[in-house]
Amino acid sequence: MVPYDSDGLAGSAPSSSSSITKPPQIDGLLAGAGYKVPSSELRHVAQRLERLETAMLNSASHQLSLLASDAVLYNPSDLSTWVDSLLSELNQSQPLPSLPSDLSDLVPNSTALDSSWGMEHSLSQQQNQNISQHQQNQLMVVTALEEDSAIRLVHMLMTCAESVQRGELALAASLIENMQGLLTRVNTGCGIGKVAGYFINALSRRIFAPAGSISGVGSCYTYENELLYHHYYEACPYLKFAHFTANQAILEAFEGHDCVHVVDFNLMHGLQWPALIQALALRPGGPPLLRLTGIGPPSSDGRDSLREIGLRLADLARSVNVRFAFRGVAAARLEDVKPWMLQVNPKEAVAVNSIMQLHKLLASDPTRNPAIDIVLNWIRNLNLKIMTAVEQEADHNQSGFLDRFTEALYYYSTMFDSLEACAHHPEKVLAEMYIQREICNVVSCEGSARVERHEPLAKWRTRLTGAGFRPLHLGSNAFKQASMLLTLFSSEGYSVEENEGCLTLGWHSRPLIAASAWQAVPDVEPALGVIDNNGVVL
Amino acid sequence: MHHHHHHPHVSSPHATQKRLKFCINDHIDILIEILKRLDGRSLGVAACVCRLWCTIARNDSLWEDLCFRHVSPPPSGVRAVVVALGGYKRLYMVCVRPVLSRLGRRLRLGDSDRVGRVWTRDEVQLSLSLFCVDYYERLGRLGGGGGGSGGGGGGGDTSAASLMFLCKPVNV
């Protein structure tokens, strides 16, 4: 459930905690349907409507016909009175049920929520009674409550983020508490409740943790990261789409070359490469000599995980008769990698593959040259045949915190929606943890610790063309393959789109991940004199 | 194993005698030719008939025919790769059948893959790639270490975790 935007409710969340006397708010959603119901009476009305339904089900037929002829609603603004009158006409003999006992503990302490939430006041006046029936009705009432709470939750999240941006941390902290209270009334197993929970968690880390104590990706999390990444790979199609699309582009670029070298910016378990090895094995003319250089963080527990993956891939390559050589480069950050470490042979065709790594270089350090420029520069000079870049299609690198937060909320809600629709996977929760880490990084970290600096495709285009690259169009083969891959998933909400030669995968027409391919523009030397990179005439 | 005989309506006992003498199990080459033309499901059923049929049905070349029956010419060099990665029967079970049924259902509502569905080179390629990923993941599980192990997504030995999405029923 994507969060409703603020047009749904009349009146917005108040930003001050002082007591306010407010005019009765009309519920905006029902107003759209023509009924004017004050927000304070929503619960009352819902309850009465349910009783009415029960009574109608239980009543004798003559009473029903009476109801049918007399029940004309003359005054839409007074829905609650009308329902009450209908109920009294039906003259139930059973005791009037009030709130089922299960819901009574949802009644918040009136002190916890401030007076701005008028609904809660009328609720706290209801009495608890034990009800033996209405199992189904309970569910209905809870759903009405839930949707309400979910909307409020989103509003509060925005308010909290805004107060964080303004530096009003005390207010933000109190909003966090309120939100955690609201969370108990929402189904946190799915939908907006789950996403809100993660964002509240991330916000509270930002507010309550001392500055600088939140590290982005620590080396002690290497094994965990790999595990979560693997489950993310299995639970949803984003990484598979990335791998297959990149492989197709690389395969096409390597046509006719006998010595090829792939540089993978983030090896992980090497899940991308079996398919490429197999495709190279079967290409007309026979397989080339394939070198793979895998970059990854150093492992902390003594295992040489890069080498292990290399051995596994070599095993596979040997089975299918592809000459293969592997080299691992352990580096904590991508900017620590220097081109000489890759040992590129001038005779080979080089492909650089970056799956969601380039954005980590965007943290700008005023004392040094931006890391992204340095890295892009040495990539260009690598005798590059193709660079495949897959990035999240979101603008999570904006300077304003509130903008970033809002964008992230919509982006990750969509992503969680898509995840929910995927086939049930026993370890889907681990995939969610992977996403949760991203959320935490976007929301609660700053400076060099914030590595998840996603930028949309348009910005990457500008950046890469400015750095001396030109786009390579991903062909129709890649598109067909991506569509087929998507069809194999059980849910129908995914969509592959083509965007000026790049492919995006999205959920219900919201692109979430974008794949593109690039080649280096050769340096042009002017006829008169030679100008080096700094504009100096040599 | 008893062979079920319909009593022929021909009255002559001679003709009956002749018919009773023919037993398909004595003519394995004919049997193989017949089995070669079956679709996957029927082949699986045939494997349950008797031990002889089971042995024959396990022959990987039957499944090779099944996989590439409608792709002509079959891409060269594929056999070595497929055999190395686990064989045609496994390829069919793990990749080809789910791919065909899912994609077939999308494209042609109502046709089952029994009705000589032609599948394209792209689908072949995709199946092979997925098969390779499956092999790689199994390598990781058997070899231990390297991650991907430890509960492995609930999938048994028959399918690697990342291909589990292929085995789930489709909500089309």
TrEMBL record, chain A:
The protein's predominant localisation is nucleus
Where is the motif VHIID annotated in this sequence? 260-264
Question: Could you tell me which residues belong to the region Disordered?
Answer: 1-24
PANTHER family recorded:
OSJNBA0084A10.13 PROTEIN-RELATED
UniProt keyword Nucleus, yes or no: yes
Organism of origin is: Hevea brasiliensis
- Please give the record's comment on domains: The DELLA motif is required for its GA-induced degradation.
Region: VHIID; residue ranges are: 229-294
Record region (Leucine repeat II (LRII)):
308-340
Q: What region holds the Transcriptional factor DELLA N-terminal domain?
A: 27-94
Short motif (LXXLL motif): ranges: 358-362
User: What is the role of this chain?
Assistant: Transcriptional regulator that acts as a repressor of the gibberellin (GA) signaling pathway. Probably acts by participating in large multiprotein complexes that repress transcription of GA-inducible genes.
Instruction: State the UniProt keywords alphabetically.
Output: Gibberellin signaling pathway, Nucleus, Transcription, Transcription regulation, Ubl conjugation
Specify where the region named PFYRE lies, as residue ranges.
350-441
Subcellular compartments? Nucleus
The UniProt regions of compositional bias labelled Low complexity, in chain numbering, are 1-19
Q: Where is this region: SAW?
A: 444-519
Name the chain's protein.
DELLA protein
Member of which family? Belongs to the GRAS family. DELLA subfamily.
From TrEMBL, chain B:
Q: Which residues form the F-box domain?
A: 28-66
Which SMART domains did the record assign? Answer: FBOX
Query: Which InterPro entries has this protein been placed in?
Result: F-box-like_dom_sf (IPR036047), F-box_dom (IPR001810), SNE/GID2 (IPR044184)
The protein's name is F-box domain-containing protein
What is the species of this protein?
Answer: Hevea brasiliensis
